[in-house]
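Submission sheet (multi-component)
Chains listed below:
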Amino acid sequence: MKNQLRVLRATRNWSQADLAEALEVSRQAVNAIETGKHDPSLPLAFRISRLFDMPIQDIFDDSAE
Amino acid sequence: MFKRPYRHYNRLVEISFWIAALWLAWLVVGWIVPGSLNLPQPIRSILRIAFNLNILLAMFVATARFMRDEYAERIWQQAAQRFVNFMMIGPLALTILIALNTKQITAALPGMMPPRLLDILASEGHPAVVFFGGIAATFLTVAQFLPQLFVIFYRWSLWRDSR
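Outcome: structure written.
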């Protein structure tokens, strides 16, 4: 699934480790989500949504699926 | 470590994987070229301690659900699937392979001898001891191999996912 995570993270000047810390997951998990290799669970997607204060559908795009 | 355990999970897997890889390399080289690993005794002792501790470490990382975040859990499930596939097919395939090539294998691996204690007991006619000793030796071997094999499958799955 495509997502805006890398862009959103870059706009805040966060490293993957910073984002991982905020989301309480490993850095590898953030990397896997950013590269589209791992689709986050619904609870994690909600945490991401709250962290960036954006609706889930604005961060994740499943139209390519 | 226990506040945010997911931070350390892949690090522990990495440590366990490389010790397991070293252990397997040690076994294979020792079988193929007996006497080729005549390292000084202190180094041998350190390696043996590391190999034995790694059995516990591998058991720990394979079972420590509380240390995995959702991505590590997905990789664990992939590794578990590969592991189960291997365990269903591997032993029978290996047995057939060995049965078909016993002469060549024993000739190629002169260092791979049966356990001496079992030989002695068998020669003195203690079938029950040999039988249960054989079962115990099998379980010990399985207990040494399986957790480390799972760690290797996990590392392989992580590597495949990162490509």
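Remark: The two ends of chain A are 7 Å apart (CA to CA).
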